[in-house]
């Protein structure tokens, strides 16, 4: 009886071994037929890393405009700060009424109702000097009172800016040229400027505008007009109606 069980176990082991060999053989045979069925002529040629740039050479990313501005009335209010070598630092509150001729061109009437003029250190140092005849030296200048003029703005580019890791704000980049007249206490002086800046569109009406550039400004010192090249920083708000 023990002999019959040994024979039976040997028969089962042999059957399992034959089944395993047949299964493995079938798998290799299937892979061999599948490899022969693949048409290797359809395999794409390898791409050279130096040619990747040529694929995207003529691609242009088109950004969506923040809004259609053509035909809109605009109101722009901003503060201007100058950094010049003149006797005073001028801070002005600008009130601009404008019109958008197109999505790229805007024209404004500029008005500054008042300036805040702060004397520079050079004026105070001169006042500390005593002349040979005993008189005290001084720089006599005329304080600015108001300003009026015209501004032309060209906004050729628009896109998106990232404000932090989660905020995207659409914006315009612009160039602005201006010409105006400054009213001093004792006369007038010309003022021209060239600025570059951006308008950030936070909503359909309320937007933020920043600009920086230079200005050629006439200042009245000792009764004479003297020209100064002034660095200007502007920051404020603009509304489209």
Average pLDDT metric: 79
Question: Gyration radius, to the nearest Å?
Answer: 39 Å
Which runs of at least 5 residues are low in confidence (pLDDT < 50)?
Answer: none
Sheet bearing the most strands, described?
A: 8 strands, antiparallel, barrel
**Spatial order of the strands forming the largest sheet:** 1-2-3-5-6-7-8-9
Strand content: over 45%
Task: Describe the overall structure.
The mean pLDDT is 79. Strand 8 (206-221) and strand 9 form a beta hairpin. The chain has helices spanning 2-37, 52-55, 121-127, and strands at 73-83, 88-100, 105-112, 115-119, 144-162, 168-184, 187-201, 206-221, 224-240. Helix content is 20%, strand content 50%. It has 241 residues and is an alpha+beta fold.
């Amino acid at each position: 009886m023990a002999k019959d069980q040994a024979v039976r176990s040997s028969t089962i082991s042999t059957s399992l071994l034959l089944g395993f060999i047949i299964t493995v053989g079938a798998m290799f045979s299937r892979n061999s037929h599948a490899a022969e069925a693949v048409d290797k002529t359809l395999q794409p040629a390898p791409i050279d890393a130096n040619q990747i740039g040529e694929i995207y050479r003529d691609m242009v990313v088109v950004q969506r405009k923040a809004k259609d501005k053509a035909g809109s009335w605009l109101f722009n209010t901003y503060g201007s700060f100058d950094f010049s070598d003149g006797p005073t630092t001028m801070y002005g509150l600008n009130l601009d009424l404008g019109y958008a001729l197109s999505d790229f061109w805007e024209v404004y009437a500029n008005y500054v109702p008042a300036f805040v003029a702060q004397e520079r250190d050079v004026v105070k140092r001169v006042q500390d000097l005593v002349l040979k005849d005993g008189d005290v030296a001084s720089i006599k200048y005329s304080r600015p009172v108001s300003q009026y003029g015209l501004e032309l703005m060209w906004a050729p580019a628009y896109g998106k800016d990232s404000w932090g890791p989660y905020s995207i704000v659409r914006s315009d980049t612009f160039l602005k040229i201006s010409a105006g007249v400054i009213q001093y206490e004792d006369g007038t002086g010309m003022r021209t400027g060239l600025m570059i800046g951006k308008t950030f569109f936070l909503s359909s009406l309320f937007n933020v505008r920043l600009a920086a550039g230079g200005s050629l400004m006439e200042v009245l010192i000792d009764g004479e007009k003297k020209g100064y090249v002034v660095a200007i920083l502007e920051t404020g708000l603009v509304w489209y109606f």
